[in-house]
Amino acid sequence: MSAVKAQVHYRVPYADTDQMRVVYYGNYLIYFEMARNELLRALGVPYREIEARGLALPVLEAQVNYRSAARYDDELEISGWVGWIKPVRLRVDCAVHSGGTLLAEGHTVHACVELATLRPVRLPADLAVRLQAALPVAGERWTVDGGR
After folding, report:
1. Which of 18, 73, 126, 145 is catalytic?
2. Domains in the chain and their CATH numbers?
3. pLDDT, tens only, 21-41
4. Phi (first) and psi of residue 52, to 5 degrees
C-alpha cells in the first residue's frame, strides 16, 4: 500500500453556519472526523469494524488553525491522512479547502482503548501495518495545498 489521503466533498448547509454567516468554528472538528472515517474506510478498516473488535479511538488532542472562512453553500474538500503512529496512539492530519483556498488545517491525536474498560491498548497489528503503510513516503510531507 502506498501513502493514502482520504477526501470528502461536502456542501455547507445553513445548519453549519453561525450568526456571522460563516461556518461555526467547532464544525471543522466534525469535518476532520468525516475525513478520518473515510481514511479508515480507505485503509480497509471502517471505524465500525474497530468498535466490533471491542476497541475505540478517542480523541486525546485536537488542533485547528483557521485560515479563511467557509460560508453557506460553499463546496468543501476535506482531506485526511496519517500523520504518525505509535504503539498505542496515532495522529490524523487534516485540511479543508474550498475553490483551491485553504480554510483550515490541523490534526487530531487518538489513543487505542478497550471499549469495556477505556484503558489504553496497543493498536491491533493489522491496523498498525495498514496505518504505517499509509504514511507519506519517507522524506515527503503532505502539504495543505492539496499536494505532496
Report:
1. 18
2. 13-134 (3.10.129.10)
3. 999 999 999 999 999 999 999
4. -65, -25
